[in-house]
Amino acid sequence: MSTLVIVESPTKARTIRNYLPSDYRVEASMGHVRDLPKSASEIPPAVKGEKWAQLGVNPDADFEPLYVVPSDKKKVVKELKAALKEANELVLATDEDREGESISWHLLQVLKPKVPIKRMVFHEITEEAIQVALTNCRNINDQLVRAQETRRILDRLVGYTLSPLLWKKIAWGLSAGRVQSVAVKLLVKREQARRAFRKGSYWDLKATLLASESPFEAKLVALDGTRLATGSDFDENTGQVAAGRQVVLLHEAEANALRERLQAGGWTVSNLEERPATRKPSAPFTTSTLQQESNRKLRLSARDTMRIAQSLYEQGYITYMRTDSVHLSEQAIAAARSCVEQKYGHNYLSPKPRQYATKSKGAQEAHEAIRPAGSTFRTPQETGLSGRELALYDLIWKRTVATQMANARQTHVTATIDVDNATFRATGKRIDFPGFFRAYVEGSDDPDAALDDQEVILPPMAVADPVSCTELEAIGHETQPPARYTEATLVKTLESEGIGRPSTYATVIGTIIDRGYAQLANNSLIPTFTAFAVTSLLENHFPDLVDEGFTARMEQTLDEISTGSADWLPYLREFYSGNDGLEQQVQQRENQIDPQQARTVDLNGLEATVRIGRYGPYIEAENNGDSVRASIPNDMTPADLDADQVEMLLKQKTEGPDKVGLHPDTGEPIFVLVGAYGPYVQLGEATDDRPKPKRASLPKGMTPDDVTLEIAVGLLSLPRTLGYHPETNAPVKAGLGRFGPYVVHDQGKEGKDYRSLKKNDDVLTVDLARALELLAEPKGRRGRRKSATPLRELGQHPDDGELVAVYDGPYGHYVKHGKVNASLPEDTSVENVTLEQALGLLAAKAATTKTKRRSTKGSTSKSGTSKGGTAKKGTSAKGGRTKGRSSKTAASRKSNPSAKSSTARKDKES
Known about the structure:
alpha+beta; about 35% helix; about 900 residues
């Protein structure tokens, strides 16, 4: 006989098995083994006729849930029951949170064990943690189970009650959700603000000044003692300076006149101010902050971040990744401080251990912050990880280690310079001691580069010193609309408002995109016209359900249920079955909702009607008494749809496409059209014999009005051959691709060498000479800053003969060879460092850089699934989806059944 241990996933099972005695058998439940029915086919015949069966919850029987074992879990349950027959003890080792507690409870209900039961909990999978957990088992926490079940029922009541209403009134396949719908509303409100935004313009002056033979820049800040207007002084709704602002607004003519007058004036330093400042390192990662920072730094979606973090946790590299806590254990603090001393030296260690307090609303679960696992932290290079797993572990390692580093000390320097009646200001920043910046700078990939960007040194000056003006430039500015949400900023807003749980944000955002409520473009979440229609219906008829405060209070009640301070049943009764409960609201208001009105999107300032149809959004307008409809292209956003675009779309529908002329070679007409993916030119008409005539998209920034016959012919000729490379005799071509215009050296089987065209290059006129010039530039080196002067040359590198030298940077001394920089240890002086020491430091740094570079060039890597899944491939290193993801995922599930469990543990927000 043996002890049976059940965890969620095979990966977790394999890791834990290494730390348990030989008579312990570890099996995976593949996530939840029971859930509410997802389709009619899963509803048991005995209750199929009940009116509540589709809901999966019986409101008339104290909201009793209808749990079923899904068909894809029956084999798992059968195998677990067989394993249990051979065991004399059952240990449930699922995660220590509400979801994990619920999985253990469901396992008991399904397996009905007759042997002793233990509940083993831990927050990291290391030998020490598992041994401690084995000796400190407990019973299942019924309050956590009840809180999870209440959340599941609540989400089902909202989703399954409101979603059918959206199908009837707007379009099939839409969904509503307790957190999802509030998140969509946030996106819509921001897009409405962008639509209402009115651009304002203002001018200022920038001076290039000279002091002590050193140039520096200063900006005009005041005239006659009155502050100059900046972007923050404008009213976004009018485009004018906000009422009550006492500022000077310069227009172009005034700015140029002022420039002429001041250029010859006497420039004098009127004030100097130095202000010391310190910066403390950020708290270690929580679920929310990890999602935010990995989105900013690594361009990973919240969903991908959680998958990868799940894999790192299950392999024993990091602690549990679903946590609101920023607390670090004494063990973690000791490990982090040891890393600081070994890697950066004693000077960079914080004077005393630093601990953080959790401040987020509704923080729950008694876990640590997310950190490297164990009593000693493996450096990223020691893990053997690669790709996105390495990148995310590196982020967690640096953030954790930085918490125990000394504060960064800076000095902010402000110089005020007067000339005539104008006041200019120059600002500088000196990094006196980089402290934790050496390891981690929030929002930046490379701490060294971040320090370079942050430090601005002003030349030595004194009050009353004259300075000379070498250049004075008038610069125009336009105010910018409110920025759209990124995944990072949306997660931050949801958490700060107390809406939902950070552990569910990845699922919520994924659902928003999958359901067509938002498109992800350039890392921004752009709401669709469908999102506008759904939000309008919910706001008008069910305002509480999309009210941020109401939703936050729901979350607080769920937290209170988990601690036993609130009763779940009265709450569900009031929410759903009360006099003003959700069930009554839907019954009363369903007949009041006009489908035609519900499908209509009201856009401020637009006279045309926008509606949601079976095949997407369209514009409807009257033309000579007839109703004309024109589809809205996929890339046209609600904030950008204006009267001119409406006119163009309707004109194309009624009059046909604009003809710019006849092709000089074929005599065929060339049309300008607007399709689902934006404007394009087309050679000839589509016919039965030629259903897909040659087409070419317009370059970014070009509008249909800009297209001439010459431009259209040129676009249709792309890619065009410019000539042949003098070294290979292979063709050199210019073309227009998904990332913009380019030139390419096409060597056939030898490969293709691409270079993007610069801003001033024209893909239609670029010649062979210019293409060869671009192709001669090394990739990744274009536009870099000029190298610094070395403090000391150490000699030639034995591999390539290039110089190895010591340089001075804002964070300390470093050695450099080619593209690789490596910091010198604190106890090594410039004079004493040897070539051999430098080569060792450079080799270590190059190994790290090489691994990171592989991860950002699109190499696929294993990424852990959410809650109980195993590693699988199919995502790119940049955080986007690979082209064939659906088919690859399906294939992986056929070959690896454990991949199915990736969705088993998600909170259902749809």
